[in-house]
Amino acid sequence: MAIRKSKTPQSPTQRADQKRVDILKSAGKCFRKNGFHQTSMQEICAEVGLGPGAVYRYFTSKDAIIAAMAEDERRQARTMLSEFHDTDDLPQTLSAITRAFAQRYAAISDAGLMTEIYAEGLRNKRVGAVIKKAETEWVDGLADMLRTAQERGQIDTALDAQQAALLLTAMWDGIVIRQAYTQEVPEGMLALFDDMLKRWLSSAAVSSKRVKPAPAPAPKKAPAAPEFDFAPEAEAEPDADKTPTQAETDLRQMSLI
């Protein structure tokens, strides 16, 4: 006689959490298909198989659902940073994070959805506030990872950790947007990204390849002033053979008076 394995009954909190997850998944499916503004709450209710009252118990509006999606993304990013914070190989860890994001977005076609959420954050203050908070936490956490790696001598200490974290985040955003257009994992780009990280962050590589600024050119000497001969010209000797004119004779006689 086969023995049935009974499922462990869920607590009210667990059931509520599962319902919330189901609603977000169904809403994401509708959003990917029709976009935010073309999707109605009725469509979300039909997709999840719940009545409007049950859905509104968890989310008061469609904006609340979008904000919850951004909040979930923030929570997952924060968890990922805490897991990798004490890594011994930061470039390898950042590469693993990049590939994890890429594979995840490819598996559930979320690259386009996340792009839509960020775009919605520019129009919707509630969504924008959640995204801004998530971005601040992510960049600050990543910068903290970089500083820790610098203190351990794992990466170049001359890097500005905060600016480097911003640049890395911008590059990840670009990879997600590219993936949304191509609908495939950009393997070639990811491989180049790995190589770039190793070259850029590695202490030995950066120190050896840092270009020293060219020395300032020596000031040009002013051209020498031309030399001029200011010696007075010699007076001409009087011509003894020259016969004086009548005027000259008259002047000499007047001077003797």
UniProtKB/TrEMBL annotation:
Q: Which stretches are labeled DNA-binding?
A: 40-59
- List, alphabetically, the PROSITE patterns matched: HTH_TETR_1 (PS01081), HTH_TETR_2 (PS50977)
Q: Source organism's superkingdom?
A: Bacteria
Q: Which segments carry the region annotation Disordered?
A: 208-257
Question: Tell me, what is one Gene Ontology molecular-function annotation carried by this entry?
Answer: transcription cis-regulatory region binding
Keywords attached to this Swiss-Prot or TrEMBL record, sorted alphabetically, are: DNA-binding, Repressor, Transcription, Transcription regulation
List, alphabetically, the InterPro entries matched. Answer: BetI_C, DNA-bd_HTH_TetR-type_CS, Homeodomain-like_sf, HTH-type_TetR-like_transc_reg, HTH_TetR, Tet_transcr_reg_TetR-rel_C_sf
Tell me where in this chain the HTH tetR-type domain is found: 17-77
Q: Which SUPFAM superfamilies match?
A: Homeodomain-like (SSF46689), Tetracyclin repressor-like, C-terminal domain (SSF48498)
Q: Does the keyword Transcription regulation apply?
A: yes
Q: Does the keyword Transcription regulation apply?
A: yes
Q: PANTHER family given for it?
A: HTH-TYPE TRANSCRIPTIONAL REGULATOR BETI, HTH-TYPE TRANSCRIPTIONAL REGULATOR RUTR
| Name of the protein this chain belongs to | Bacterial regulatory s, tetR family protein
Recorded source organism is Collimonas pratensis
